[in-house]
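In this supplementary section we document a worked example of the pipeline. Step one takes a protein sequence of length 99 as its only input; no multiple sequence alignment statistics are reported here. Step two produces a three-dimensional model, which step three serialises into structure tokens for compact storage. The input and output of this example are shown verbatim.
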Amino acid sequence: MKKLIQEFLIFLHEYKIVSLAIAFVMGTAATGLVNSFVNDVFMPLISPLIGTSGSWRGAVLRMGHIQVMYGNFIGQLVNFVVIAAVIFLVVKYFFAERK
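The serialised model returned by step three reads:
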């Protein structure tokens, strides 16, 4: 049993499982922050540009019998761009050559 516990501790250390768990929790918290930024700050500012008054998620383009609900897509696209930009900046900072 003692050997099994030692192997488990080595597994946790070698594969950095605790760091992975911390990153997962931080990513979840960051997602909430980015969603709030997009929903509460950014999208209300561009709502007039996409032709919605109030709920931008309900923005719809009607073409005959076809309805394209593009408001939510724009919100998700902005979420993606913000998250990708933050990840880019973090990776650039941590992996930049130090002078």
